[in-house]
Design a protein that fits this description.
By secondary structure, the protein is α+β, with helices and mostly antiparallel strands. The protein has a single domain, classed as Alpha-Beta Plaits. 35% of the residues lie in helices and 31% in strands. It is built from three helices and four strands, in the order βαββαβα. A hairpin with a 4-residue loop joins β2 and β3.
Length: 83
Amino acid sequence: MNNYCSYYHAHIVRKDQQHVVSVLKSLEYVCFDRTLDKVSGLFEIFVPESQEKTFLKIMNYFKKEGIVTDMEKLENRLIMQEV
């Protein structure tokens, strides 16, 4: 088990951003999200390893609905800052 969360970037359609954030926040401990760029709809999302399956299920639904336009798993930026 890793001490750091998985780290994602996701673009969310502007009109649906509040809805997506509300859904994610209603599910305790699934993730922590933060807006990086309001205009482009870019969010960074930290997901505990134990919640990744649930998180991906939710985000895949939003992708199918056209609400999340793309999502990418990246190296956690907090790990990179430790170097």
